[in-house]
Design goal:
The complex is a heterodimer of chains A (166) and B (154). Chain A has 7 helices and 2 strands; from the N terminus they run ααααααββα. Chain A is mainly alpha-helical. Among the domains of chain A are: 47 residues; 54 residues. In chain A, α1 runs antiparallel to α2, α2 packs across α3 and α5 packs across α6. Chain A is elongated. The mean pLDDT of chain A is 86. By secondary structure, chain B is α+β, with helices and mostly antiparallel strands. Chain B has a domain of 89 residues: Nucleotidyltransferase, domain 5. The two termini of chain B are 29 Å apart. Classes of the chains: A mainly alpha (166), B alpha+beta (154). Chains A and B meet through β1 and β2 of A and β1, β2, α4 and α5 of B. β1 of chain A pairs antiparallel with β1 of chain B.
Chain lengths: 166, 154
Amino acid sequence: MKSTQDKEEYRRAYAIKQKIEGLPYRTIAKDIGVNYRNVYDWINNYRKFGLDGIRNRRKNGGRKPMISTEKNKELIKDIVLNKSPRTFGYLRNIWSIRLLAIYLSSILGINVSPMQTWRIVHDLGIVYKQPKLKLEKGDDYEQKKEEIEGYKKASTAFLKKDSTGI
Amino acid sequence: MQPYITRTYMMKGEQQKILHKGTNDKINAFITLLYPQNRIKFNTGKTRNSNDFISHLNNIKRYVTKRNVKRFILVIDNASFHVSKKTRQYVERQSEWLTVVYLPKRSPFLNLVETKVNRNLKKDICANYVYETEENLLCSVRKYLRSIGCWPKI
């Protein structure tokens, strides 16, 4: 009962719970606000099929998505994260939402609006933020670091000698 | 070449890292927007002195004499090589075809090159990409400026 977020499923589970406790059909129906014949049907379905008898069957309704299918979502994720627009012939380094919309509409053959592409990118968990600049270390990085630390030690030793000598 | 850094798209909770090799060389470009011809004239080079600016003005003079334009009005900001003694002497000598209008000090929002070309160029081409040599950068900058081609209406 607690795991569902659907209100109709919750209603049916509530009716079955009250029936197990021993209440008659008509009082359950009055409590929920439906006809008592519906409660008969729910409990008959529960006896036949178990919990699957209560589940809502209307999940796969409505028009199927044309642009935001899972196949296209993986394609968009691969394009935005791994490939630069230079590889597709645009003179740019960074993707913008408008450019992505133009490129997607050329691939899919459907007119894709910038708002729709933003929605898909936002659902994938991709955010717009600042990268970090880092220095690439060469092969002789550690050798030079040791040399500089050696100079530092020597200079401190000289300073101590001068202060005590004079 | 050390890149200019702006925001990009990455996964939530991760930060992209851009590697570069400590050098900080730069390339300079003189850009003028021609109105009402809807064209861009530009010169690129390593330095930006008053000598380079005068050579850029000579390029414009060649363009003007070909088209038989009576008078050319140039609007520029107060950069040090625009205001120097050398360029002012040059402008006085070329007063037959050239008049110069200086913008008020510290007002880059009035400069159309700054707002319409430089901003997009920096964002599109110089950002988040490490060019290995100077020639690659020069090539892509020239290509971009030619691709704009006319007065940018962005």
